[in-house]
């Protein structure tokens, strides 16, 4: 897993600035999750997070969500990057393509994907628009406000509990991971 090569793939295939930032955020959360769960391949998990939306600007999956994921796998295979379990995790982060969540790796990416956008949305409502202003209490409060960041899949975020991690611990882990790269995220 060569991170420099993965970044070159991201920069080649994704031009939408907020998706690039989102990709870095999911990478950071996946790296932290791998570390927390122990004995996981931290680099592989991080690369899955970094590249999970590689097809964002390649296919019009917004009109047909079943297309989201398979094209990413195609791009990764064309570049001889990744492993079968990484491909399955990337596919499983979008169940609308017909994939099912069967492993901890898949469950982690499924949960990590929406929480980064959710935390970003919370940061953006603060006057300074900084992650340093976001508190765990804000995240848990906003989870109950279904109109706030309505597109964030709360069920996916809470599914982290199936890995033995409470939602509060996951939210704090994710916030901390994103804060570590706040300059990259411009938050």
From TrEMBL:
Domain of life according to the entry: Bacteria
HD/PDEase domain span: 15-127
GO molecular function, one term: hydrolase activity
CDD domains from the UniProt entry: HDc
Key words of the record: Hydrolase
InterPro entries: HD/PDEase_dom, HD_domain
Record-given protein name: Phosphohydrolase
């Amino acid at each position: 897993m060569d991170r420099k090569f993965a970044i070159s793939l991201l920069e080649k295939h994704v031009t939408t600035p907020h998706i690039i930032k989102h990709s870095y955020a999911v990478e950071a959360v996946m790296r932290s999750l791998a570390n927390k769960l122990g004995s996981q391949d931290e680099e592989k998990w991080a690369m899955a997070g970094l590249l999970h939306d590689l097809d964002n600007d390649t296919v019009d999956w917004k009109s047909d969500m079943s297309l989201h994921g398979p094209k990413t796998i195609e791009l990764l295979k064309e570049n001889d990057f990744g492993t079968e379990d990484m491909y399955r995790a990337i596919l499983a982060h979008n169940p609308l393509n017909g994939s099912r969540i069967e492993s901890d790796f898949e469950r982690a990416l499924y949960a990590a994907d929406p929480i980064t956008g959710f935390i970003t949305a919370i940061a953006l409502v603060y006057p300074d628009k900084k992650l340093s202003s976001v508190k765990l209490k804000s995240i848990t409060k906003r989870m109950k406000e279904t109109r706030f960041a309505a597109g964030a899949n709360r069920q996916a975020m809470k599914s982290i509990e199936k890995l033995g991690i409470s939602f509060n611990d996951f939210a704090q882990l994710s916030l901390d991971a994103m804060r570590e790269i706040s300059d990259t995220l411009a938050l």
